[in-house]
């Protein structure tokens, strides 16, 4: 995947997570106060009225945006750090998902305010897991190993 495609997908994931927030989350969130100060609440109110026919699940409302944003961060960092050594790229790209995982685990242990949610933990973990699998497949040419093994065994 090229850096440009990674960036585009990353920006689309940010947009999708943002649209979920704008469409369905309570307007008491800090985001809406900022949008109100920018004079955008009339537009947002109209958008929310149009979207009111839809009733997404709690997973979509509360867990999915974090996972989308974690995945977006990974993709954008990978696109911006193309000439950086692989270990540094992975370390930087892992920061946000690891922070999300840590915050959920600390909530579970009662060491951080908030409510532990296993689906939030899953949504932060999956993008990181996909990153690791992607790096293994791309950089260690694992598919070549499998195809070579199948040719040798025949």
Write structural notes for this entry.
The chain has 154 residues and is an all-alpha fold. Helix content is 79%, strand content 0%. Helix 4 (58-80) packs antiparallel against helix 5 (86-108). The longest helix has 23 residues, at 58-80. The two termini are 32 Å apart.
The helix content is over 70%
Q: Provide mean pLDDT, rounded.
A: 92
Rg (CA only): 19 Å
Stretches where pLDDT is under 50 for at least 5 consecutive residues are: none
Summarize the SSE layout with pairings.
Elements: H1 3-24, H2 30-37, H3 41-51, H4 58-80, H5 86-108, H6 118-139, H7 142-153
Brief sketch in words of this structure:
The chain has 154 residues and is mainly α. The protein has helices at residues 3-24, 30-37, 41-51, 58-80, 86-108, 118-139, 142-153. The model has no long low-confidence stretch (mean pLDDT 92).
List keywords for this structure.
154 residues, mainly alpha, 7 helices
